[in-house]
Amino acid sequence: MTYHLAIGDRSYSSWSLRGWLLFEKFGIPVRVRTGILYTDDFQRLLAEFPPARLVPAIRTPDGEVIGESLAIAETLAERHPDAGLWPDDPAARAMARYMAAEMCAGFPALRGDCPMNLLVSYEDSQPRPEVRADLARIELIWSRARGRFGEAGPWLFGRYTAADAFFAPVATRIATYNLPVSDVAQAYVAAHLADPAFRRWRAMGIAENRLQPGYDKPYPRRPWPGPVPRTAELAEGPAENDACPFSGKPATDFLHLDGRVWGFCNAFCRDKTMADPEAWPAFSQLIAR
């Protein structure tokens, strides 16, 4: 048996991103259920996870429903102690929990003025002083963690932990709205944007093609500041492969990459790969044969 995870639109739902990363980054199997934000479809999804009111929510293999990201993180850490969701060092672990809790409860100006939107990036979002104050606090706690425990890697505590999952949507906000932060903070943001798991999440959001106009802002746009994906295009079959690299089912939908045609079992598998071909290990292994 496995877990079930309820999420909203991948391009906009910051809390959904946190919940998904808690599974994806720590190798915990999960089946994802999606609902479209601000529609009856979202209420349909929540009805499958009572008594949850928001996403993310999970159903454990034994049937317990858990909402709220911190509760999900602690439940997974308790059930999967070898997965390493929290730092091993007790002092680092305490700091990581403190930071995650502050993320859940704090930074209202940043969250209100700069909602997560993974489909665009702006040249200048003209952040208010209140947003700059939130950024200053975020830089302070990031630098405190990095200074004491982050020497071994690019993440807050060296290796990736649940604290990084909680701050991933903050990193995307800095990228989307081109918010003013130090070079050290920008390096941490860049680590998130280049992370293969995050790239897969963003690619799936592009493939979903769920547009929420209320998230658009009236600022000049710039290219997405993360790694530039290889260019792939829609194609007609036949393909070099007979089976989808993800499901193993017969190939029915096709893309063209570097002069070669590849097949997938449905349009979503094709489109998520087309959005960022290098983010998908199964596809990379297929084309390297």
TrEMBL record:
One Gene Ontology biological process: L-phenylalanine catabolic process
Pfam families from the UniProt entry: GST_N_2
GST N-terminal domain residues: 3-84
Stored SUPFAM superfamilies: GST C-terminal domain-like, Thioredoxin-like
Gene Ontology terms for molecular function: glutathione transferase activity; maleylacetoacetate isomerase activity
InterPro entries: Glutathione-S-Trfase_C_sf (IPR036282), Glutathione_S-Trfase_N (IPR004045), Thioredoxin-like_sf (IPR036249)
PROSITE patterns according to UniProt: GST_NTER
PANTHER family: MALEYLACETOACETATE ISOMERASE (PTHR42673:SF4)
Name assigned to this protein: GST N-terminal domain-containing protein
